[in-house]
TrEMBL record:
One of its GO terms (biological process) is amino acid metabolic process. SUPFAM superfamilies: PLP-dependent transferases. This is Pyridoxal-dependent decarboxylase domain protein. PANTHER family: GROUP II PYRIDOXAL-5-PHOSPHATE DECARBOXYLASE, MIP05841P.
Length: 530
């Protein structure tokens, strides 16, 4: 493909993309594939059995996209895609990503690509300031009294960001512990080395935390203790009292901390007393849980973490985007107590996947763990981060460009309007749904997610979900959480959360569809208000 062919293909593709986006906004096709025709393995017999020896033309490839690939697509940008937390997309983001792919730098260090590093630094400081985050998370901060500086990095997902952070904390703990107790090579052979220490490291999260928390600790070979949430009205809250109790129990057991803040050397014979006096661990709280969009009491959890010198991570992947709106900042009251924060602009800031931001108050937690300096990576420039030292991956995409495009071309005012619209749609859905008294809402709707079920019970709610999948006019997902009445049991429900193109009319259609299917399922039209 030469330059002229490329320009022609880009013209065709840009028209195709614009037409596709217009068609989904106009509901020209269903949100989901036709699962009577699309079954697992549907695509293989439609394509050649082996890769082509001679290249096909662009239009031949696009013909297969249109007639073979697209029929199997679930359309995540569809106005009636109401199942999962949204994946954002916008024309400015597409343009930024397109340009990034064309330039195609590998921003592993400032020297490797100065502009990609500096734009990431500047854009993440912009966003941290717009969200009202403490200055300790910004590169522009001079650091604390001990010279510790924070900053942010863009990762591909919140799961990878958390796994990276946990491994960084583990490495710091092992390094400090081995140095502190002067463990020799002979000690390590006898089983008193890193392997034995890792087995005693522990972290904490609530039972409503995202599954990525458990995976991150499992990958890092660390223990995790899950704290049962407490039921307060329709809320399932991370219980600070139970957290404090669990930490105290583990101190008494002599479990080993992940981060040791004491600078005093302690001999191995003083091991048990040391843990009691300087026990430090990690704790993960959530701003907008996946199951029910619950908001943990960040301030109370943070105070417990300070009491035990715990590293406090705030998972704000979804609802953290709302911090750009001042009225939602009370949901994260106490964020200044957090040591790290994770937010996904690709959920609510109109930036297409992938774009996850991990802010940390101490960048050395990452750089000390992942720093490697082979000769071919060395350079003489200072004053800017080398992002290869901030992550498991050496190579990294120029993701900051699409985020910068979105902020520049929309401005914070338009982004705030978009988030407020998203939240208002949830409130409208809740109001309209509850006009039918066969339904009940089982979460405290404070942001963009509504969890609901049929009062008739779990079995009927499950049947309703199957009817929705068969009809293909809406895509909702099922969820479960601790039952509000019987906390020892799981409550099954359906989840509503709007996508970027959802409108009030789509909300009305969703409520009408649910009532109509309830009529079919229950054979009772008398409960619904007319």
């Amino acid at each position: 493909m030469d330059a002229k062919q490329f320009i022609d293909a880009c013209n065709y593709l840009s028209n195709y993309i614009a037409t596709y986006r217009n068609q989904i906004c106009q509901h020209d096709f269903p949100v989901m594939p036709d699962f009577e025709k699309i079954q697992p393995g549907y695509l293989r017999p439609l394509l050649t059995s082996e890769a082509p020896e001679d290249g096909d033309s662009f239009h031949e490839v696009m013909r297969d996209v249109r007639y073979k690939v697209m029929p199997g697509m679930t359309h995540w940008q569809h106005p009636k895609f109401l199942a999962y937390y949204p994946t954002s997309s916008s024309y400015p983001s597409l343009l930024g990503d397109f340009l990034s792919l064309a330039i195609s730098p590998i921003g592993l260090s400032w020297f490797a690509c100065p502009a990609s590093t500096e734009l990431e630094v500047i854009t993440l400081d912009w966003l941290a300031h717009a969200m009202g985050l403490p200055s300790k998370f910004m590169f522009s901060s001079t650091g604390n009294a001990n010279g510790i500086r924070g900053g942010g990095t863009i990762e591909s997902s919140a799961s990878l960001a958390l796994a990276t952070l946990v491994m960084g904390l583990r490495e710091r703990a092992l390094t400090q512990l081995l140095n502190r107790f002067d463990i020799t090579d002979e000690d390590r052979i006898d089983g008193r080395g890193p392997g034995a220490l890792v087995d005693r490291l522990v972290g904490y999260s609530a039972d409503q935390a995202h599954s990525s928390v458990e995976r991150a600790y499992r990958i890092a070979m660390l223990r995790i203790r899950t704290i049962p949430s407490k039921i307060v009205g329709k809320r399932r809250e991370f219980d600070a009292y139970e957290l404090r109790k669990a930490m105290a129990e583990d101190v008494a057991k002599g479990l080993i901390p992940l981060v040791v803040s004491s600078s005093n050397p302690v001999g191995s014979r003083e091991l048990r007393g040391f843990w009691c006096a300087y026990f430090v661990n990690t704790c993960v709280a959530t701003m907008g849980t996946t199951s029910t969009c619950e908001f943990d009491d960040v301030k109370s959890i943070g105070q417990v973490c300070q009491e035990f010198n715990a590293w406090f991570h705030l998972d704000a992947a979804y609802a953290g985007n709302g911090l750009i709106c001042p009225e939602f900042r009370d949901l994260a009251r106490g964020v200044e107590l957090a040591d790290s924060v994770c937010v996904n602009p690709d959920k609510l800031l109109l930036v297409n996947f992938d774009c996850t931001i991990l802010w940390t108050s101490d960048q050395c937690v990452l750089t000390e763990a992942f720093k490697a300096d082979p000769t071919y990576l060395l350079h003489d420039f200072n004053g800017m981060p080398d992002y290869r030292d901030w992550s498991i991956s050496l190579s990294r995409r120029f993701r900051a460009l699409k985020l910068w495009f979105v902020i520049r071309m929309y401005g914070m005012k338009k982004l705030r309007e978009y988030i407020r619209h998203h939240v208002n749609l949830a409130a409208e859905f809740e109001m309209q749904l509850l006009r039918d008294d066969r339904f009940e809402v089982v979460n405290d709707v404070r942001f963009g997610l509504v969890c609901f079920r049929l009062k008739a019970g779990r079995q009927e709610t499950g049947r309703l979900n199957k009817l929705l999948l068969q009809e293909r006019s809406l895509f909702l997902s099922a969820g479960s959480a601790r039952d509000l009445i019987n906390p020892d049991e799981e409550q099954y429900f359906l989840r509503f959360v709007s996508s970027p193109h959802t409108t009030i009319r789509d909300v009305q259609f969703a409520c009408e569809t649910l009532s109509s299917l309830a009529d079919k399922l229950l054979g009772d039209v008398g409960c619904a208000e007319q």
